[in-house]
Amino acid sequence: MTTITLPKCAIETLVKICAKHDNQPGELINILHEAQGTLGYLPREVQEVIARQLRVPVSRVYGVVTFYSFFTMTPKGKHPISVCMGTACYVRGAETILDEFKRRLEINAGGVTPDGQFSLDSLRCVGACGLAPVVLVGEKVYGRVTHAEVEKIITEHAEKSS
Amino acid sequence: MEQTIKLQIDRKRVEVPRGTSLLDAARGIGIRVPSLCYMNLQGMCITNLPASCRICAVEIEGRRNLAPACSTRCEEGMNVTTTSARVMNAQKTVLELILSDHPTDCLVCPKSGNCELQEMAARLKIREIPFKGASSNRVKETSPSIIRDMNKCIYCRRCEMMCNKVQTVGALAAINRGFDSTISPAFEMPLRDSGCTYCGQCVAVCPVGALTENDHTNRLLEDLANPAKTVIVQTAPAVRAALGEEFGMPVGTPVTGKMVSALRALGFNKVFDTDFAADLTIMEEGSELLDRLSRFLAGDKSVALPILTSCCPAWVNFFEHHFPDMLEIPSSARSPQQMFGAIAKTWWARQTGVKREELVVVSIMPCLAKKYECARDEFKVDGDPDVNYSLSTRELASLLKRANIDFNALPDDDFDNPMGESSGASVIFGASGGVMEAALRTAHELYTGKKLENVNFENVRGLQGLKKATVDLNGFQLKIGVAHGLGNARALLEEIREGKSEYHAIEIMACPGGCIGGGGQPLHHGDSNRLKARARALYAEDEGKTRRKSHENPYIIKLYEEFLGKPLGEKAHHLLHTSYFNKGKEIREQ
Q1: Can you give the residue range of the structural domain that contains B89?
Q2: Is residue B397 part of a domain?
């Protein structure tokens, strides 16, 4: 027998989210979205609980989680950094901005710093092409970001935490 | 009246029922539009239509783009071309793209000679692969039954369809996206942790070498060449109904006699029959049914009913993984393969003076789950398995070809005794409903004490997913159910769990049609006519036998007299019964 353990409150939260959607397998994406919004990420245990509630194989849940880049199985940092790599941002140098974040934080895209403060991702077009290149930290938007500003952005948020 | 649609395909007029695909319409008039991902299991009313391979592209007048014939429905007045230069060039490009990241190790691929992709490359005359791109580098996974080499996968998703829609096991799904996508268990865990039952239906439909069986041919060759070993073989009922297909015989040709000759020619010391052990299974399972029934009728409410058959190892894996709360319901009788091994390595070994460590028991099975079953720890004595390993029907056929045996020219021969003798009841184990019919023949006589004149229980035969029958036992109406395919089994189990089951006894086989459609058989391609022909071969062999009830097998009678004592007795319990394990998942609060 395989035993999967999860804190009681997390199980209760997931059961509630699934019930809100009538435990409908067709609602899987919405349920995953809410679960990630509440718990921060979607580790195996969370996917197992959702699969059990919806009565679908966990392989299907995992298939959806790994298909959409929005879903993550690793916890995000306290300050999740997203660099837009949409066409407009890309042609205005988003790649070098991303590289600078990687160099300064010493992590790759998709990674989290060991202290859990920052995570780094790239995404496709936030719809603010006039501000390209765009960087998001949590909900905060930075436009026309330059190479030199990367360090400033990191420091700003690191100080907020301390 | 059903509405029909008229259209033209390659300047031929054709009229088809509404809803027909262009592919089916074209094939209906002899136009062989190529396909790879498409699969139509008519017998099970299931079609695989991901339209993912795009090889079936055709041109439709008035449409700008080519259309996939498999998933485009015929429309009134359509004018379709399947042979224009544009279509043929597109098909070639599609195939070149599929091949651009496909390994080119065809010469050493286990699927070579039986691969739909290889055949397509020959048919479309691919002479070079102009696209040089990345290739995936996934680790090959070996399980006791199935080998997954996903670098060879072409994403047709047939395996996913069998695993999810037909078998409802849900071990495999499409994961990741883009170039990283693949078909895999959740969290990329190994098959053994995924709830996979090893039924092998994914292997049976894989068009390429991505999913193949764990081949034991070389182990067998080594053992046969070792003078210190006594190597004996048992053959499952369904093998004889399909082996001939691998040698060009018409589907449904029974080849029992030739198969025995061939195995003898390979050098086995004794050629025995799993059918003997099937008769033994009926003695034990039938007695267990009667025991549970009589306790139930005497008012014992704790008796687990319905009783479920336990011959099928994929089915056993299925309930251990997916219904671990119901482990007391199936019969505790081991499968015929394992009963054979247990008796061969005790009774027969003692009789003939062969030491256990020198005796190798090999089985030829229509099944891939049998490979896993014989490796289960509970079927070992001091680490030595009762059945050393199992080869599939396909593995046997390829070994016979390699051993220069002209199968079609072989004379018929008989099995060795004592474990080659069998009744007609045991032969039909290979078809869905056969185990139940065999059990009824014996249980009826044991229960009523009267001779059963008509031994044919037609109601439980055939390819219907779920079959029901009521049998009169001295006024008691015994209700039986028969299911094949794990999806059908799941429905019955859920009924039992909810307390709504009307049955006293249920037979379940994991594969479509029972063992005749097993994952180790010559590929059935979802063709139900093929399954029906194989079943007919088994029922004909049953009809031809003088003894058609398991308890009339003289060597079974002798085995109980000399060695086992009574059915369900202490020795029988030790050697012929087993217990089941909870392999399910439990979610616990931390």
Answers
A1: 4-98
A2: yes
- CA of A81, closest CA in chain B: separation in Å? 23
Total structural domains within chain B: 2
Q: Give the A window 127-156 contacts with B, CB below 8 Å.
A: none
B325: domain CATH number is 3.40.50.1780
CATH class of this structure's domain A79-161? alpha beta
Residue A86 has pLDDT above 80, yes or no: yes
Mean pLDDT of B224-244: 98
- Rounded average pLDDT over B266-276: 98
Picking from A11, A59, A61, the nearest residue to B587 by CB comes out as A11
Q: Nearest-CA distance from A7 to chain B in Å? A: 5
A48 touches chain B (CB under 8 A): yes
pLDDT at residue B1 is higher than 60: no
pLDDT of residue B63: 96
Q: Is pTM, for the whole model, over 0.90?
A: yes
d(CA B343, CA B145): 24
Q: What pLDDT does residue A22 have?
A: 98
Domain residues of chain A, as ranges? 8-67, 79-161
pLDDT at B528: 84
Within an 8 Å CB–CB cutoff, is residue B498 touching chain A?
no
Among B98, B133, B153, give the residue marking a domain's end. B98
Residue A58: is its pLDDT beyond 90?
yes
Distance CA A53, CA A24 (A): 9
Q: B469-502 burial, b for 16+ CB within 10 Å, e for fewer?
A: bebebeeeebebbbbbbbbbbbebbebbeeeebe
Query: Cα Rg for chain B, rounded, in angstroms?
Result: 25
Q: Which residues of B touch A47 (CB under 8 A)?
A: 186
A70 touches chain B (CB under 8 A): no
The reply to whether residue B170 touches residue A49, judged by beta carbons under 8 angstroms, is no
Q: With CB atoms and an 8 Å threshold, state whether B194 touches A59.
A: yes
Q: Taking phi first (over 0 means left), then psi (-120 to 50 degrees means alpha), and beta for anything else, what does residue A127 get?
A: left
How far is residue A81 from each of residues A147, B173, B497, measured CA to CA in Å? 15, 31, 49
Interchain contact, B590 vs A7, CB within 8 Å: yes
Can you list the pairs that B27-32 forms with residues at least 24 positions away whose Cβ atoms lie under 8 Å? B31/B82
B307 within a domain of the structure (yes/no): yes
Average pLDDT over residues A31-38: 94
B506 in contact with chain A, both atoms CB, cutoff 8 A: no
Tell me whether residue B427 is in a domain. Answer: yes
Task: Give the confidence band of A9 by pLDDT, cuts at 50, 70, 90.
Answer: very high
DSSP at B345: I
Q: Do A66 and B590 touch (CB under 8 A)?
A: no
What does pLDDT average to over chain B? 95
Final residue before a domain boundary, out of B64, B98, B132: B98
The whole-angstrom distance between A160's CA and the closest CA on chain B is 33
Cβ separation of B170 and A60 shorter than 8 Å?
yes
DSSP classification of residue B335: P
* Active site amino acids of B: 285, 288, 311, 331, 370, 373, 378, 515
Is the CB of A62 less than 8 angstroms away from the CB of B187? yes
Query: What is the pLDDT confidence band of residue B45, given thresholds at 50, 70 and 90?
Result: low
Q: What is the pLDDT of residues B16-30, one digit of tens each?
A: 999 999 999 999 999
The one-letter amino acid at A18: C
| Average pLDDT for B361-377 | 98
Give pLDDT tens digits for B134-151. Answer: 888 999 999 999 999 999
Question: Does the beta-carbon distance from A62 to B194 stay under 8 Å?
Answer: no
pLDDT surpasses 90 at B441: yes
d(CA B278, CA B311): 9
Contact B407, B247 (CB under 8 A): yes
Name the closest residue on chain B to residue A57, using Cα atoms. B170
Q: Which two tokens stand for residue B325?
A: 């709360």
Contacts with A69 from chain B: Cβ below 8 Å: 177
